[in-house]
Automatic annotation (TrEMBL):
Record-linked InterPro entries: SCO1/SenC, Thioredoxin-like_sf
Protein name: CSON002195 protein
CDD domains on file: SCO (cd02968)
GO cellular component terms attached to this protein's record: mitochondrion
Top-level lineage group: Eukaryota
Organism: Culicoides sonorensis
Cysteine disulfide links: 287-291
Residues binding Cu cation: 287, 291, 400
Sequence similarity: Belongs to the SCO1/2 family.
């Protein structure tokens, strides 16, 4: 085969591109090209060996194909770059975002100019939001915490901007953001200031600029599709995570059935609390410091949850409506039932436990039992406990796991809270878990 075949093949490929208006060979045209090359080789250059297509002709086709693919990649890259430039031109410099002036939780004026040169993660919400805002704030706090762990990452400043300035004063906002992370900066202001900030992030520019109605419509449709897909992926991911978490924990890996006795001497079991949320703490009445602190925390959570249920607001989520109905049916029983289970049954009789729990809240149910019953309950929740050496007065300290356990109405373990979690963090987490549970179990229109 002569060298002229390579040039002829290249010329043929080049001329063959005339079959496509875009000057590129499509996948449907490749079989035609292959047959054309084969017939051309048979006619002009009989092959050596068994077939008409020789190694050199295949090499020539490969070289031409590689060049064609390179050109296609170049055109694709140029098209993407052009789309990016056009999108930037259409959106303009301040179509989303812009200058704003607000006040932080210390009463100090803050503006968008104060954060120039820094990355911002901004969330608009309100402190009286029952479920969605706490969930998003938890997410924001988690993002900030994870970002700090990553090496060579630029600093990211989290901002919470209220959309309810009439109720969300700087003091209210200060208390709210601290529940999630001390690094989140809470911002409020006058009604006009907040409206201006919200408009900056919600109203793309109109009129004289390069942004037209048609381009905004295209962006809106594309954005809606993207948001819909992102929501679908997020929902699927959450469902998968919940299924995976449940699989890893197992049906009874943490939690399970137990039987004890309350402070009135009445037998109580895990089955008695099916249909109710439980907040369980394991401790002992002779504990000098840690247990009283945790019991105070539990009592505070229950008290605050009761205030949230009775709070009058136009906006109620499904979970809040359910809790409100529950509190109307049983006004003396909170929607979240607090249980104190002793790990020292030899000293903590029902009378001792009754007196102990009343010191913190009349709503806390104290439970005790035989040594075997208590061991079984502790084992179900993976609670470690061990009595220390006795002193001259026959007194001793019990070393035990310091954790509160959250159990859903189906009797399944949901979450736990260690000693380092404060009351506000525990309360927020419980509300988020309740909202997720309600979302997963709410009935549709046709169910």
């Amino acid at each position: 085969m002569s060298r002229s075949l390579i040039s002829r093949s290249y010329s043929m490929i080049k001329s063959f591109s005339g079959l496509s208006q875009s000057k590129l060979i499509t996948s449907r045209q490749l079989p035609v090209l292959r047959n054309t090359v084969r017939s051309y080789c048979i006619k002009k250059e009989p092959g050596k060996g068994k077939g008409p297509v020789t190694f050199r002709s295949l090499t020539a086709i490969a070289i031409g194909g590689a060049g064609l693919l390179g050109f296609m990649w170049y055109v694709k890259d140029e098209k993407e770059q052009a789309l990016l430039r056009e999108r930037k031109r259409q959106l303009g410099k301040a179509a989303i975002g812009g200058e704003w002036e607000l006040v932080d939780s210390d009463g100090k004026p803050r503006s968008s100019k104060d954060f120039a040169g820094k990355w911002l993660l901004i969330y608009f919400g309100f402190t009286h939001c029952p479920d969605i805002c706490p969930e998003e704030m938890e997410k924001m706090a988690g993002v900030i915490e994870d970002m700090e762990k990553e090496p060579n990452m630029p600093p990211l400043v989290p901002l919470f901007i209220t959309v309810d300035p009439q109720r969300d004063t700087k003091e209210v906002v200060a208390k709210y953001v601290k529940e999630f992370s001390p690094k989140i900066i809470g911002l409020t202001g006058t009604v006009d200031q907040v409206k201006h900030a919200c408009k900056a992030f919600r109203e793309p520019g109109k009129g004289k600029g390069p942004v037209t109605f048609r381009s905004l419509t295209a962006i809106a449709i594309g954005g809606a599709g993207l948001l819909g897909f992102m929501w679908y992926v997020k929902d699927e991911k959450e469902q998968a995570l919940l299924r995976e978490r449940k699989r890893q924990l197992g049906k009874a890996a943490i939690g399970g059935e137990w039987e004890l006795v309350d402070s009135d001497g009445k037998p109580r079991s895990s089955k008695d609390f099916v249909g109710k949320w439980l907040l369980i703490y394991f401790g002992f009445t002779h504990c000098p410091d840690i247990c009283p602190e945790e019991m105070e925390k539990m009592a505070g959570v229950i008290e605050d949850m009761g205030k949230i249920i009775n709070f009058e607001s136009i906006q109620f989520s499904l979970i809040n409506l359910n809790l409100l109905k529950f509190s109307e049916k049983e006004p003396n029983v909170p929607p979240l039932v607090p249980l104190f289970i002793t790990v020292d049954p030899q000293r903590d009789t029902k009378e001792v436990v009754a007196k102990y729990v009343k010191e913190f809240s009349p709503k806390i149910i104290g439970l005790t039992g035989t040594v075997d019953q208590v061991k079984h309950a502790c084992k179900a929740f993976r609670v470690y406990f061990s009595a220390g050496p006795r002193d001259d007065d026959n007194d001793y300290i019990v070393d035990h796991t310091i954790i509160m356990y959250l159990v859903n109405p189906e009797g399944e373990f949901v979450d736990y809270y260690g000693q380092t979690r404060n009351k506000e963090q525990v309360k927020s987490s419980i509300m988020v878990n309740m909202a997720k549970y309600a979302k997963l179990h709410q009935k549709g229109w046709f169910s």
